[in-house]
Write the structure tokens for this entry.
Amino acid sequence: MVRDLRIYGQRNDATVYHYHDSDKLEADVIVEARDGRWMAVEAKLGGEEWIEEAASSLLRLSQKVDTEKIGAPSKLLIITATGYGYDRTDGTTVLPITALAP
């Protein structure tokens, strides 16, 4: 998944990296476009409880960043092993890894 995001990032002039801070808050992937737009991504291969955990982590991250400096995230994305894609009411999006296709 990270490899795929790196390839898509390179093709779209974006930087892809991992986020981890001193409070042990992390995101599997941050994708940052040259114009400053960014999204945070968590990959979860388990079921609904793992999706809930990922959503909680992404929402904590979005509340922690200084949006005055870097702007709000364009997307908070949870990539899963199977299933279908949908937007959650909390502002996160769930997307199956199979949607990461050229």
User: Anything to note?
Assistant: The CA atoms of residues 44 and 80 lie 5 Å apart.
